[in-house]
Structures are given as C-alpha cells and as structure tokens.
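This entry is set out below.
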Amino acid sequence: MLGIETSCDETSVAIVSSDYQILANVVLSQEDHAAYGGVVPELASRAHIRTLCFICRQALERAGLTWNELAGIAVTHGPGLVGSLVVGLSTAKGLALSTGLPLIGVHHMEAHLFANRLTGPIPCPFVALLVSGGHTELILVPRWGKYELLGRTRDDAAGEAFDKTAKLLNLIPGKGVVAGGRMLAQCAANGNSHAVQFPRALQGQPNCDFSFSGLKTAVLNHVRSLSQRALSEQLEDIAASVQAAIVGALVDKTVYAVQVTGVQHVALAGGVAANAMLRQELEVNVRKQGCTMYCPPPALCTDNAAMVAAAGCFHLEQGETADMDLDAFPRISLA
C-alpha cells in the first residue's frame, strides 16, 4: 500500500506491506513557516505541489518496487488544512486513475491510531488517547474500524497548549511556534515541576473531557507578574510546571476512561505522544490499573505516510475503497 500524507506542513509518502511492515517512509518537513508564527496554509499547499511527485518516486525506489506491485493508494482526506489535503487527494486520484489501483480515503486521526499497528498488534477493546496540535480525544476502540468518542477538549488541544506556552516563555526564536512543544520539554528537563501550581481544568469531574485554555491564561498572567530577570532565573521551573500540568491532565483523564470502560489496554498516538514525560507517566499510571500501554516510536508519532498506508491496508482488507468523488474535509470527526 502506498500512503500519502499532506494534511498540514509535512509532505510524506510511504509504502507498507499487508503485514504492516514499513518498506519506505519519506517525510519532508517544511521550514518556511517559522517566521510567520505558525503554518501558512498557502505556503504549505505550494510546497506539497513542488515536492509530492518527487517523493512518490523516491518512496518506490527505497522500497524497490514498481507501480505494478502495489495493491492500492491510501491518502489522508481530512481533517487538516483544506488546500494541503486537496494536493494530496488530487495526486492520489491521478495515481489511482493512471495505474488502475483502488483509492482508499483515510481519516488523519485514525491514521495516528494505526501508527501503533506498525510496531505490533493491539488487543481490542482498548482506549486510545489521541493528542496532537489540533486534537485531544479519548476514544474507545471495541474493534479496528469502530470508534466511540469518550471525551475531547472543550477548547484548545494539548499540542496547542505546549506550543503557545513555549511562545509565552520566549523559548522559540522569532515569531515561530513550530516545534514549541519540543522546545518546552527540553527546557523543562532540568526544572522543578512543583515550582508553580498551574490549574488543571475539569480534574475530578466525572467525564473524559479536557480544557487547556485556562492553563494558557494562567501562564500568561504568571509571566507578566515577573521581571525579565526573574523569568530568566525561573524559566526551567516554569516550563517543567507547565509540562506537568498538561501531562497530568492527560494522564488523569485517561485513567478515568480506563476505569469507566474496564478495558485492559491503552494506546497513545499523535504528535504529542512523542513527549517523553507523557509516555512515561501514562505507562506508569495505566500499569497501576492493570493495563498494558502501547505507543509507537517518536518518529511515527508525528505526521507521516506510513500510518496512512497502514490504515489503507486495513480498509482494503475490509473491501472498503473510495470513488473518484472522494472529497477533502478540513473538519471531520473520527467518532
């Protein structure tokens, strides 16, 4: 299965076998957005146009395959930046028409779930914590292909909270917010996570929902209360406290979801799943509940086409293919 991922600012093409082995996974990250304070949709779309066909050829070469040896073309069709999605979707349709291969549309967040299948099977049912820059959701997966929403963020996603608080702490040079979460985690490595008690909204409430907008406001107010010298001296402690608040909220709600569903398996997926503290804290706490945790390696947590191809393999096995009128959806729910 050849997979295409262009939902945001990563251009990626991968080839995955029917037993979920990665044969090639080419990811090209765009570097044109940092000066603008975030991803610029028009620039992202144009970059996909310039590079996607070349990356398709590169993936085939790395896998040592020809078009005739493929079983299908899988492509992300939502959610994401609509212009970027259209580039990937148009390319996938053209390839499917020219080769006669079936077309499979893949939900971006489902693809993140399938990143776990690339490292081994996960027994169903399981609870999945999906955390990325734009999504924070708890999903019950009674079986692959069937998803039940347990809870989601009521405002900002965890990834956005990481990025925006990193910006508030001046951890990112220029105007960029790209890789803010990684910068904050690096700064937090040597800090005291108990130095500042930032709020954790909805904690103790009998639901699986999240909220991070209040945390951003609390960080902003705290930063404004400090002199530049004090901020510099306390920077690592503040970063550690912010990270602890975000991770703590994610872990607590996931543990609650495990308790109310009674499942014995938990999967972590999405870009924020690359955060080392989240991976460690979640595993420790779900083990206390008698659960096993699954998480892909960090390289497969961020946007990539291998996870899209993996989801495509599953849907093709189920006989689920798409017509040429498959559309791009900037907003589409998984459950």
In short: The longest strand covers residues 22-29. The chain is about 45% helix and 20% strand.
